[in-house]
Structures are given as C-alpha cells and as structure tokens.
Request: fold
Amino acid sequence: MNDDAAIASLSAIAHATRLGAFRLLVKAGPDGVPAGEIARTLGVPPTTMSTHLSILTNAGLIEPRRESRTVYYSLRTPEVSALFDFLMEDCCQGRPELCGAFVGAGACNPPKPKPKRRTPATR
Reply:
C-alpha cells in the first residue's frame, strides 16, 4: 500500500456513518450484511446509505455481492489488513514484537503470551 491508497481508505472511514458501517461489517464477518439492514441499523435513509457504501467500496475497503434482489456488503479483509500493516509498518522503530501494546483486547489476533521461563525453583 502507498500513501495515496492509505489516505483514500482513511478518508473514507473519516465520517461517522461510514465508520459505523465499516465497524458493522467488521463484526458481521465474511457473509456480510444486506444494504437495507446496514441503513436500518445505523438509522440512515437508504439513498444516503447507498452513497456512503459507494465511498467505502471505491476506497477498496468493502465489496458488494448481489444475491437475487439483495445487495450484501462485506469487508475486503486483505485490503483492510494491508491498511493496518501500512499504518504499523514502522512500529517501535522496526521492532514489531514491541507493537503488541497497540493491539486491543478485541483484536482478532492478539499477541500470544510468551512462555514462562522455567527457573530451577519451578522445575
């Protein structure tokens, strides 16, 4: 990812409604959520929600999938992961093992605790 792509992605989620939709789709997982349900959940008129979803789609963060007459939106996980990687690329002066402090408790992949070293007293 480059600066321009990161700026486009961050600009897309820099709005309360779009951030809400993005977070809803993060929670929903790969199956996604119908556009109408996103609008109802966020209390936004469908036509307004359509505009917001288009902005997130154009930024590459989400993607639509049509099933019959319903359009489902889901997260584009590789692109979102690339954004996070880009943002954390230089974390802790090139020592990514120190970046565990930046991973929240709700993260999908929190850092694994280091095994305790056995001392002569615990053997």
User: Anything to note?
Assistant: The beta strands are 33-34, 62-67, 70-75. The two ends are 48 Å apart (CA to CA). The chain is about 45% helix and 10% strand. Helices lie at 3-12, 16-28, 35-42, 46-58, 77-88.
